[in-house]
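Input structure tokens:
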């Protein structure tokens, strides 16, 4: 049987992008050959991806070591657009297939794909547009350009055979568009092939994720750690606060900084902690409809979670008794953490509630079936 080919486009290194990794693995494990077009900012993407993915996945990476992409690095973004366009041209011209599926994630990947499809309308290519974050609600965009950029994203949504969002609530963000087919894939971890340790309480708190200034209370928590040096903390990730986390790990015996981890190692570390968090500033529009990996990981791993009020997931946390909700404030975070650490029975109950919710509504097997069903309908 000839395998269907998917070209998966995302401005990420893939090995540390949990959502992209799960989608690629689900496709490659279920009869699809996946060609990845990604952005390598560390120089190690191909090596690490080869260890994570099977033989049905191949890789091309745009190599450019910058911290964040956006309007401050518009020159690099334009070069990325040109690189994606040229790779799509090369692959479609040099592969003996009469049809492709292109899975583009977010506007910075969707736009070059959309332009390629418009200029090559004779090719049989189905676009799957995967909205991790609605662009104008996440990025700081000059007011004069906001409407134009939103129109670009709406055009991509309207042209896509399938549009994917990460929560049902995010339909509000794309209400100006008319998607041909819309599905929801929650950011749930896939635990089927992850070996988790028996120990579940080595650390008091773990944060594995973005270390950029993204209004997630990261720096504020790090800044206040010296007041709480008795707590066993683990931080991991990549970004502007690397140096601060590294200094804390040198100065305090209870603080560990692990740098960038592949996603299976993230789950292993998180499974050994007592409390997790999924903290976002509700003043940012996109954060009011957030779908944090950390929230779903807390459910899957049976850990209580600390979240911010006004971010959407706070309603789920309160409804199902999954953890504690706080204002966007580091002192409140430490108070909530202290409350949970002093009450093992309550932590256990919250963790069990989360695990049950994950199994019934959010586990990746449910999301995978939705993805594969949508793909199977593309002719």
């Amino acid at each position: 049987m000839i395998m269907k080919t998917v070209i998966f486009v995302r401005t990420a290194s893939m090995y540390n992008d949990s959502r992209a990794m799960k989608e690629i693995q689900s496709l490659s494990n279920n009869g699809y050959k996946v060609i990845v077009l990604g952005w390598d900012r560390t120089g190690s993407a191909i090596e690490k991806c080869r260890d994570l993915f099977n033989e049905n996945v191949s890789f091309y990476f745009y190599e450019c070591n910058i911290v964040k992409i956006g309007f401050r690095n518009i020159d690099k973004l334009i070069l990325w657009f040109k690189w994606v366009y040229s790779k799509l041209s090369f692959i479609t011209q040099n592969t003996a297939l009469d049809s492709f599926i292109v899975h583009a994630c977010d506007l910075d990947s969707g736009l070059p794909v959309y332009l390629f499809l418009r200029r090559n309308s004779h090719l049989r290519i189905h676009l799957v547009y995967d909205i991790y974050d609605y662009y104008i609600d996440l990025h700081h965009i000059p007011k004069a350009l906001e409407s134009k950029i939103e129109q670009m994203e709406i055009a991509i949504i309207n042209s896509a055979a399938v549009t994917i969002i990460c929560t049902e609530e995010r339909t509000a963000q794309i209400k100006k568009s008319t998607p041909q087919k819309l599905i929801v894939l929650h950011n749930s971890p896939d635990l089927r092939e992850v070996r988790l340790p028996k120990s579940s309480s080595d650390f008091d708190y773990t944060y594995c994720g973005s270390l950029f200034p993204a209004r997630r209370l990261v720096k504020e928590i790090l800044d206040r750690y010296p007041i709480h040096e008795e707590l066993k903390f683990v931080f991991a990730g990549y970004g502007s606060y690397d140096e601060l986390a590294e200094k804390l790990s040198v100065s305090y015996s209870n603080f560990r900084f692990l740098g960038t981890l592949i996603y299976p190692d993230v789950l292993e570390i998180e499974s050994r902690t007592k409390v997790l968090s999924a903290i976002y500033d509700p003043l940012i529009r996109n954060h009011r409809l957030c779908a944090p990996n950390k929230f779903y990981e807390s459910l899957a791993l049976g850990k209580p979670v600390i979240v911010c009020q006004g971010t959407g997931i706070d309603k789920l946390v309160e409804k199902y008794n999954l953890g504690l909700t706080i204002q966007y404030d580091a002192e409140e975070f430490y108070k909530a953490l202290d409350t949970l650490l002093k009450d093992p029975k309550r932590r256990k109950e919250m963790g069990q509630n989360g695990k049950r919710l994950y199994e019934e509504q959010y586990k990746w097997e449910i999301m995978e079936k939705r993805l594969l069903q949508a793909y199977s309908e593309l002719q």
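The first helix runs from residue 18 to 28. The chain has a mean pLDDT of 93.
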